[in-house]
């Protein structure tokens, strides 16, 4: 019974690690993901309570981005 509990806990940790891509990416991988989404000049990458924030340029205009825990890139207003 104890082995079963330990096994379930280990499985939960392994699965949970796979569900937070923004936190699992290195800074270089995150910048590459942002650039692949059409942004350039990515800088000031920081981890915050709402996710990872960064400043970038899209269509010649500066933007502030938030990458949430699911890996979604959103422009902050």
Q: Can you give the mean pLDDT?
A: 80
Category by helix and strand content = alpha+beta
The number of strands is 4
Helix count from the secondary structure assignment: 3
Residue fraction in strands:
35-45%
Helix-strand sequence:
HHHEEEE
* Residues in helices, as a percent range: 40-55%
Question: What would you call the shape?
Answer: globular
Provide the gyration radius in Å: 16 Å
Strand order of the largest sheet: 1-2-3-4
| Largest sheet data | 4 strands, antiparallel
Low-confidence stretches: 13-23
First-last Cα distance: 52 Å
Domain PepSY: 20-69
Signal peptide: 1-24
Protein name: PepSY domain-containing protein
InterPro entries: PepSY
Q: Can you offer a commentary on this structure?
A:
- It is a single chain.
- The protein has 77 residues and is an alpha+beta fold.
- The protein has three helices and four strands, in the order H-H-H-E-E-E-E.
- The protein has helices at 2-18, 21-24, 27-36, and strands at 40-48, 51-58, 61-67, 73-76.
- The protein has a four-stranded antiparallel sheet, covered by helices on one side.
- The longest helix is centred in the first third of the chain and has 17 residues, at 2-18.
- 13% of the residues are buried.
- The model is unreliable at 13-23 (pLDDT under 50).
